[in-house]
Amino acid sequence: MPVTDVQHDVDNLTLTITAEFAAPAERVWQVYADPRQLERVWGPPSHPATFVDHDLRPGGRVTYYMTGPEGEKYCGWWEVKTVDEPREFTFEDGFADEDFNPLPDMPVSHNTYTFSDIDGRTRATFVGRYASAEALQKVLDMGIIEGATSAINQIDELLAA
After folding, report:
1. Section 128-145 average pLDDT
2. Beta bridge partners of 10
3. What does the DSSP assignment read for 14-65?
4. Phi, psi angles (nearest 5°) of residue 48
5. What percent of the chain has pLDDT over 70?
6. What is the pTM of this model?
7. CA separation (Å) from 147 to 45, 58, 59, 139?
8. Per-residue pLDDT averaged across 79-86, rounded?
């Protein structure tokens, strides 16, 4: 399993997930840069993702939805802030309605995804920062740790294919 550590810090309003992959950082980067690859690992296996827009450049927008087992859709958006290919990108991540309009009463996180080479492997650090303890608690209550962990744990299989 690629996920090696999960920490949430209420004082710093962060959720940090660390994972290691048996591939160089450039290969892991390709997963996030290619929407067809990303939709194979974004979201838990029970909720596959479909990316509608995917512009991984500063100022770019990403929209997607995950489909639940009963056909229900959960929509989201990213606003890409910085890109340092293949080492790091930052983005805002939020929930959306079915037209991909941000839902103002749902949490938005500022995310930093970092990929470091370690002897031909990649250590990935996924840090999400929330505006308030209530926002962090809301996503924890929604099962973000379980969902993100099961999503990230799918990446090794994709990398091996």
Report:
1. 96
2. none
3. EEEEEEEESS-HHHHHHHHH-HHHHTTTSS-TTS-EEEEEE--STT-EEEEE
4. -60, 150
5. 100
6. 0.95
7. 9, 27, 27, 10
8. 98
